[in-house]
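chain below, 284 aa
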Amino acid sequence: MQNVVRAQRLTGERALFMSRELKIYDTIFDDGESPLKESRDIELVNCMFKWKYPLWYCRNVKVTDCQWFEMARAGVWYTDNMEVDRAVIEAPKNFRRCRELTLRDVDMPNAQETLWHCSGVRLDNVSAKGDYFAMNTENIAVNNLRLVGNYSFDGGKNITVENSRLLSKDAFWNSENVLVRDSFISGEYLGWNGKNLTFENCTIESLQGMCYIENLTLRRCKLLNTTLAFEYSTVEADIDGSVDSVLNPTSGYIKADSIGELTIERDKVDPGKTKIILRREGCA
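prediction:
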């Protein structure tokens, strides 16, 4: 039978260290580091974390209707098989080196350096604000993410993003195997140094966006106020509408209504390797 902790205020370091098969309700973890370190098979409902490192080296954790306050910094590290539903997470640097992590209906107003080096991540209806979100995270499925923060998904691999809105400079740098569908992205230098990046039915705004990419694909995308695009990228782009300017793509094709300014410098790239297809006049 599972043990139960109900309506407690727990303080002191490692207050429930190495707990097993424990249900915790309406409880505050305050003024003491690592209260649940090394715990297994834990369920928390309507609890509050007010101090640092609450869930490190844990396994099989379910969290519902809980809150992480600002000083619950670095809250979940090295923890596997965790589900978080309906939470507000004010603390930065959360979720590092975790495996099999699901966040649903979660708000992270201070998501600085959050979700680093994780794998097997699912985000559903999450809002986050902070730089360096999801750096070096692999095997991540995202639906309805609202993100404000630069350098997101840097170094990530095997990423699917759907129905999301990203205001993020340098998003998807150094990333591999990325699919973004039905989403909005605004931010300079999108996707640089990436490999196998695909955008479907997206609206993108980006100064010098999508450069230095190996195997870039755009399907039915709008490029608004997007300039100096595709430099040194291998690209297959079907653009819905026009693009302001294109600079030195390496190879492939670009299909658009028009291109405001097309620059292909023969001393830098081979013009014969990129096909430009315009649906109407307007290429300068």
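Residues 250 and 270 are 7 Å apart (CA to CA). The longest strand covers residues 119-129.
thats it, cya
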